[in-house]
Design brief:
Strand content: 15-25%
Number of helices: 12
Strand order of the largest sheet: 1-2-9-6-5-3-4
Bound molecules: nicotinamide-adenine-dinucleotide, zinc ion
Radius of gyration: 20 Å
CATH class of the largest domain: Alpha Beta
Length: about 350
């Protein structure tokens, strides 16, 4: 499946096909200019090193393996990438490839955006989260000790290659982490996707990734620089970020925290009569299928509301909440920070 994404700087293709990694050399031939510089992490390297080398055998390329995990998205590592690019004498007519999950995509993208004021960049996302989320939107970033994604830019790739076969080697918890975002897309825009997710999905990942990206593409094309409508992609996130912070980013993965956010918010809006009856149960049943329901999650509403009020995505007096009316339909609701509603 092929999707074309429009951005203000250029349009690019996303190719989604199970097994396409084995034809990587051909698929990137239209955009892989000059020498290639592939950046990955140690887990992806451990599984796919030999395949990568044989699939790129027609190319001249350099290869850099970084430690796995969020801590890699730091200034020190970005500095090491710049040094390696300079040592390899990479020029503006060469190409950098991110081969890995969202961590590798984000730091590699930022390196590509800034080295020599911007070089050619191709993405090969290997986690479900990075396939359905990072492939569209052009956001690239690293973290600072003071917070996540504090240094970054918008730098869309020249092409994205998505092979859903990569998902077969993901640890189950990492796969489910991505499923939380998939379920989010279904909740805000696509009741049909919600039904597909309730069935056997094993042979439908290409279609599922396509449906998610198509939703993100439509939303992002209408709001490239994240000023308004793009906010709907934050369903479950304001609350989810509060949960992540409360637990120091240790207890819950991002997706798990978003799942908690989606179910708590929807339970609350259903109790308020805003959301159609039965929606919370449907959502929680689907989340349970992917181990994304947390019964013993102890919830301190007051603390969460205060953390939400400090979230960088909220402006001074109000918090923008994303509520769903039913599965597939959402709305942005602006509420005063003082006007705390009851979340149980
Ligand atoms: N730029 C964006 O729009 C955007 C969107 C969402 C998330 N993000 C960022 O992405 C990051 C999270 O991404 P992630 O969840 O992919 O994390 P990740 O890159 O850390 O990958 C998760 C784990 O899976 C391993 N892995 C990756 N591919 C694998 C494979 N095919 N088989 C086996 N193991 C594999 C990794 O080594 C890592 O241990 C965060 O830093 C977040 O801020 C960015
Ligand atoms: Zn998210």
């Amino acid at each position: 499946m092929l999707m074309n994404v429009k951005t203000s700087s250029h349009n690019y293709d996303i190719v989604i096909e199970k097994g396409i990694f084995s034809r990587l050399g051909d698929v990137i031939s239209d955009v892989a200019k000059g020498k290639l510089f592939v950046i990955t992490d140690e887990n992806v390297d451990a599984i796919y090193h030999d395949k990568l080398y044989s699939n790129l055998s027609d190319y001249n390329f350099e290869y850099m393996v970084l430690p796995a995990g969020e801590r890699t998205k730091c200034l020190d590592m970005l500095g090491r990438i710049y040094s390696a690019l300079a040592d390899a004498k990479m020029s503006r007519s060469d190409t950098i490839i991110a081969f890995g999950g969202g961590v590798i995509g984000d730091i590699t993208g930022l390196a590509a955006a800034t080295y020599l004021r911007g070089v050619n960049f191709i993405g090969i996302p290997t986690t479900l989260l990075s396939q359905v989320d990072s492939s569209v939107g052009g956001k690239v970033a690293i973290d600072l000790p003071q917070g996540k994604n504090l240094v970054g830019s918008f730098y869309p790739p020249k092409k994205v290659i998505i092979d859903t076969e990569f998902l077969n080697t993901l640890p189950e918890r990492v796969f489910n982490d991505g499923m939380a975002e998939v379920i989010k897309y279904a909740c805000i825009r696509d009741a049909k996707l919600f039904d597909i997710l309730s069935d056997d999905i094993s042979n439908r990942m290409d279609e599922i990734v396509y449906m998610c990206l198509d939703i993100k593409r439509q939303v992002v094309e209408a709001d490239e620089f994240d000023k308004g409508e793009r906010m709907i992609l934050n369903f479950g996130h304001t609350f989810g970020h509060a949960v992540e912070k409360m637990y120091n980013y240790e207890t819950y993965t991002h997706g798990e925290a978003v799942a908690i956010g989606m179910s708590k918010i929807t339970r609350a809006t259903e109790n308020m009569g805003y959301t159609e009856d039965g929606t919370s149960d449907r959502l929680e049943n689907l989340l349970a299928k992917y181990n994304l329901v947390f019964d013993n999650f102890t919830f301190d509403a007051e603390t969460a509301m205060n953390i939400m009020a400090l979230d960088k995505k909220s402006d001074s007096e109000y918090i923008n909440y994303i509520f769903i009316k039913n599965i597939g339909t959402c709305e942005i609701v602006k509420r005063s920070k003082e006007d705390k509603f009851i979340v149980k």
